[in-house]
């Protein structure tokens, strides 16, 4: 899979011109640069798998989902910016960077608003599993835009994942406790995630470091969510309980750390590779939903989730075939 990394010039390197320093103790065991995308994939997927569960915990604790996203996004971006500044990294406020970050923030806020609003109604496991579907959609959109080559093996993977999404939806509707509207709302999230994946690769500003773009995107996403909350009459400033503050702190840390790695992964590996955090999010989110929140491991949930993950694996393996 690492063979699909797009080469970059030193000026436009993943770290914004700063060479990747590999500790000597690790050089003797394996090629860190070769396995860096896979390591980042596992890290980012695990962080965001926890987000689906933490979103439901936040709702249980009393957070309005839109306000929760507004505060966690803004504070997470500011925390990341402050942390990077301590390590000597300068921010990039060029007009092209700000424009990119604003649109990226919107394309981040929209699907996450969908997920945070839907998770109390359909469960963290369902949200985590449909997130995996974004990787297939990213590939489909990339083929339509001719930035990826069509392969029949990949088409089989897409079909399997589509059947998985259908199985998940039917399972949620069968028990009668989940209105159709919330199932459809949750399924809209991966569509916008895929659009965001492609946009960031297509519009990435020249010579921009991922560590300059990530905090700005989060801050803009937080502001956009705050505007939505205010438009709907939701109070932004209110004294949270201790439990609410703890849940918010966890989400701020997830965003601040997770998105630093997220943007680095997209820079060195591209939109389609990045989108494969979906299966990892599905595994982590579903597992945490079952073990921490007591969500039922229904047959439709397991079968649909397995189909989505299998479909993702099939089309991913097809990319390694010449």
From TrEMBL:
Its main location: membrane. InterPro entries: AA-Vitamin_Transporters (IPR050638), EamA_dom (IPR000620), EmrE-like (IPR037185). It is a multi-pass membrane protein. It is found in: Membrane. Residues 38-169, 181-316 form the EamA domain. The chain crosses the membrane at residues 35-53, 65-84, 96-118, 124-145, 152-174, 180-199, 211-232, 244-265, 272-293, 299-317. Keywords: Membrane, Transmembrane, Transmembrane helix. It holds the Pfam family EamA. Belongs to the EamA transporter family. This is Transporter. It comes from Maritalea porphyrae.
